[in-house]
Write the structure tokens for this entry.
Amino acid sequence: MGSNLAVMPERRRPTGPERGVPIGWTGWLRLVLRSLGLALTLLICVPLHYTYRTIHYGSPFPKIFLRIACRICGARLRIHGVPLRRDVFFIANHLSWIDILALGGASGTAFVAKAELGMAPVVGWLARINRTVFVSREDRLGVADQINRLREALADNWSITVFPEGTTTDGHSLLPFKTAMLRVLEPPPPGVMVQPVALDYGADIGEWIGWIGTEGGVENAKRVLARRGSFKLEVFFLEPFDPRDFVGRKAIAAEARARIVPALEARLGKPLRPFAHVVGPVGYIPPPDKAA
């Protein structure tokens, strides 16, 4: 006897709270539990960090905190390639504040960040613990000082990460690279290498997790912390290159971008697309047929 049961289409499980959609009570519960987990990890790692610093210059605890925090927030890291440990300038694509947890937790790198972050309560303090170099787009007269601070960081054998897009995107796009902070590589400090990094959350998660459009930072963080379950984040440390082989910061940026693009396209299985949102601070306007 034939069955009269129709084959129902498989319902796609939602990735998480969508932008502008209220978070349900289960989402709020996950948000609170993850926030408590982050606070507890911080309470353990910060005293250990300052205690360690009394006897050693470098401390492993910022890296440990970032790695644990990344996992608490739901990311399951998978590292490809080998990050250089020192005397390296990482150049990476940028989707989310989770990128900072992942890269810092994987390599112990310091970051170049917007000056506004340094004024944020708690977050700014944490960024300073991780040796963040703060820069301001508006402070044209202070560019030389910012470059000097980067040079000092590299001279101290730190690894430094920059996100040259100047903003976050959606995992399907890569904005033109801004090269102002690559002036530190004109000329490159002795022994410093450049290592491009490609961050891949997967096509669906990348688009969902991206801090894009008009969404505020707090709202994005709430969405991510309210998400059900975990998500995969693959970090590809690509082949490093010697910046001395390229004349000027624009050529260095172009080489890094030329290595990141095929890595992302290989993960997506298709070409990157133009970013669909206007980004005033970096002067980006999407093509007319792509504008959101």
Notes: The CA atoms of residues 129 and 215 lie 27 Å apart. The chain has nine helices and seven strands. The domain at 25-277 is CATH 3.40.1130 (Glycerol-3-phosphate (1)-acyltransferase).
